[in-house]
Amino acid sequence: MGWLDSIASDPAVQSYFRATSLDEDTRISYLKGIYDICRFYGLSPSELVEWFRRMSEEEVVEAFRRWLVGRKDELSPKTLWTRLGGVRCFLIGCGVRSIKRLQAEISDAFRRVVGSPKPVLRRDYISREEIGRLLKAAGLREKALITV
Prior knowledge:
By secondary structure, the protein is mainly α. Helices cover 74% and strands 0% of the residues. The two termini are 24 Å apart.
């Protein structure tokens, strides 16, 4: 992943990760969010941090709203919610104080733009037994589709 290395090597990202004790999956999730918003705005992570530091509170909320509007058709609500959380944590960890004060407003902007993210529940997953029953009842073509 070339993009992962380029984002992870940024001084702001390195400093943030050194100061936190996140597991590897969480780091990758945060990097995806950081990469996404940086690509959207055409900034490096360090530039993004400095840009947000110079903003008024209204501008911060508007910047998040624009990003959400621009990405909502390409990402699922749950994915976008996860990326938003990673970006917020990164910016807070890099000293953008207004983000912490504005978390409720940023979340409200998310709900207005994207809707409420639905939690994935255990009942939403299909069990191995259910997959087995589907495969037994399916024809050859359906078996191929199910296994893919």
